[in-house]
Amino acid sequence: MVLACDAPLFLDQTTFCKETMITLELPVWPPSENGSGSLLYPELANWIVEVHTASFTGKYECARGEKICLKVLKNEPLSVTATPVCLDAKGRKVCFFKCAGLILPYYKFSESSTLLWFNGFSAHLMQSLFRNGKQLGYDSDELRNYISRFNWNKLEASIDSNLKKCLEDQGFYNPWLLDQTEVLNGIAYGSFKANLLNMKNVLKVDTGQNNEILSSYVPENENIKKNAQILIKKSEVNVFSDYNLNGIMIKGDSVQKLTLEYISLPLYIEEYEKTIDTSFSDCLNPDGVVPW
Description:
Blueprint: E1 19-25, E2 44-52, E3 57-62, E4 67-73, E5 78-87, E6 93-94, E7 100-104, E8 112-114, H1 120-135, H2 140-148, H3 152-168, H4 180-188, E9 202-206, H5 220-227, E10 229-233, E11 238-241, E12 247-252, E13 258-263, H6 273-276
Parallel strand pairs: 1-8
Antiparallel strand pairs: 1-4, 2-3, 2-5, 5-6, 5-7, 9-10, 11-12, 12-13
């Protein structure tokens, strides 16, 4: 399937120009960092692709290998995410894995790009701001200018830097374990600081001989395989899966006091994104926001 528009997704402004077509490729499934394909992933049913700008919202169901074609203006903010919908052991569609993504124009611009797992978190943040701004009644010009003033390049660079530091210390960094409400409010109120991207209250837990456990954040699974270790958020419900998408719920305040329970994962429904979208109220402040 190719998604195309007869008109630009963005409203034209003198500061936003040079309309162009871009082609976005979906991630390879099953994922593999080194091409070995040694990790066991469930069968892919389809992708749910979401496209958000200040003046456009689109949601599409795509099959493996399909491409997304969009007509855009180069300098205007755009967020695209792709969430895999997989089949569980009973052949039912379930949503477990976090999205891959891309944000423009902050990502190195190219007329052909692949949606990346590492960029899924920042794309999700931008989409949350777009979605919430529209719900609160901000017009497209306000929302466009507001999103454009935040330093998304620096946010992605900081996430990448945190990952590299953790890997040097024989650990791993998972941005989905951050307090998303704090991060979004920091962006919205112009009070964002890099330390909001530091993982807090996170435990390292050894998996022992359980080689079938999968994290919902796809890049973490290579680390689980290599170091037999997962990251969990203290005092919160953490959900992992085995290779055929039975859920494993883990909760605890310390490594010595963990509870583990097998559960069923959420079945995919049309409005699934409402169950995973970060909620925060009245946090958009276009007049007061300052660049980070």
